[in-house]
Write a structure and sequence with these properties.
The protein has four helices and no strands. The chain is mostly helical.
């Protein structure tokens, strides 16, 4: 399964949906919503780590450029959420290493 291809994403969502139906006993509609929410949260966590590594390796200017692209593609609210979450993790000492998120 290639998660960077549309079919890979569909397959992953179907798998997450099936797990939610079986493990939590959710209806198909509720399981689909849960799978999408889980996937978006995971994507956001990965993006935060990516931006933190970018800052550690290439500096703040690279991050500012990236956030400008996010704002252009997904809107200012999404860019601001990403910026805030990155700032919070940076303040807690995370520099984007896998599994390094700080609670």
């Amino acid at each position: 399964m290639d998660l960077f291809e549309p079919e890979g994403v569909k397959e992953m969502l179907a798998e997450r949906e099936a797990i939610a139906r079986e493990d939590a006993g959710l209806s198909a509609l509720a399981a689909r919503a849960q799978a999408q929410a889980d996937t978006e949260a995971w994507r956001h966590q990965c993006e935060v780590r990516y931006v933190l590594r970018m800052r550690a390796e290439r500096g703040r200017e690279a991050v500012d450029e990236y956030l400008a692209l996010v704002a252009a593609k997904r809107g200012p609210a999404q860019a601001e959420k990403l910026r805030k979450d990155c700032a919070q993790q940076w303040q807690r000492g995370s520099r984007g290493a896998p599994g390094e998120g700080k609670a």
